[in-house]
Amino acid sequence: MIYAAAVIAVLLAVAAVQGFTLSARAKKIDTLTESVEDAKKELKTARESAELYRRRVEELQVQNDALQIRLAADAGKVRQAAADNPQWALQPLPSDVAAALKELDK
Question: Vertex 21, ends 15 and 24: CA angle to 5°?
Fold first, then answer.
């Protein structure tokens, strides 16, 4: 009888330890699952932000390309006007243009 009681007590102790172990593992699994879900949310947010930045960069690149084309066309017009009017090279620069050029040299 004492032997049976001891066996039952040992079995109850083993069951209790297994219960605590399972409970601790379940908590750890829940914590890890929450961490994974949080990481997924952060990754989704980061991807959305990256997509917004990528689109904005593309828009800015299109604007930059258009400005470069316009600048090249304007520079061509200036070159052509200078070629058509060589006497301009003999005239002094207006003071505001000379000041702006000096600022560019700094």
Answer: 140
